[in-house]
Design brief:
about 40% helix, about 200 residues, TIM Barrel, 10 helices, six-stranded parallel sheet, globular, three-stranded parallel sheet, alpha/beta
């Protein structure tokens, strides 16, 4: 799948920081059952890569991405683990749109966005969206950069996601509220499926 196709699968991409690999598969199944197929597993914990491999192998219908990809080596490792896309908090030096798997690079300024467009990217992660100016910044970007499409993350939850999704240059949003740490620790997969189902209707 292309990155554009992946980002259109649902209005929300869950951003998951998995501490316990044993929770990975039931968590992913709960989110997919709620209608969120594209999942981002951040590479912030020792359990991340093992969790990605297990989700890829054991969860039907899922599209797995690696988050917090900050180097070419991490992008390649994500591809080797079976990921179908990768997400970075910023632009990775020397990495263009062509690579071992589609990359959604983060931008925060017009200059970074211009660099990304020159590198061949069309889709970007605005991060941290809420801190940078949120919907007002995205509206401002739409004038000089009408070709840029965004998946904003950072400070987005059920209370403001619809405001972002109403913008013409936003295809989806990323957020962790659909898989809160307390519900993951408790193994309350039904509650997570309910949150995912609500988000899938945005």
């Amino acid at each position: 799948m292309t990155l554009a196709e992946i980002l259109k699968l649902a209005p929300v991409i869950p951003v998951m920081t998995i501490e316990d690999e044993a929770k990975a598969v039931p968590l992913a199944r709960a989110l997919v059952a709620g209608g969120l197929r594209a999942l981002e597993v951040t590479l912030r914990t020792p359990a991340a890569m093992g969790s990605i491999r297990r989700i890829v192998q054991e969860v039907e219908g899922v599209v797995v991405g690696a988050g917090t990809v900050t180097s070419a080596a991490a992008r390649q490792a994500a591809a080797d683990a079976g990921c179908q896309f990768a997400v970075s908090p910023g632009l990775i030096e020397g990495e263009g749109a062509d690579g071992p798997l589609p990359l959604l690079p983060g931008v925060a300024t017009p200059t970074e966005l211009m660099w990304g467009l020159r590198a061949g990217y069309t889709h970007f992660k605005l991060f941290p969206a809420d801190v940078l100016g949120g919907t007002a910044l995205l509206k401002a970007f739409s004038g000089p950069f009408p070709q840029a499409i965004f998946c904003p993350t950072g400070g987005i939850d059920a209370t403001n996601a619809r405001d972002y999704l109403a913008l013409a240059n936003v295809v989806c949003v990323g957020g962790s509220w659909v898989a809160p740490a307390d519900l993951v620790r408790a193994g309350d997969w039904g509650a997570i499926t309910a949150l995912a189902a609500e988000a899938a209707r945005f």
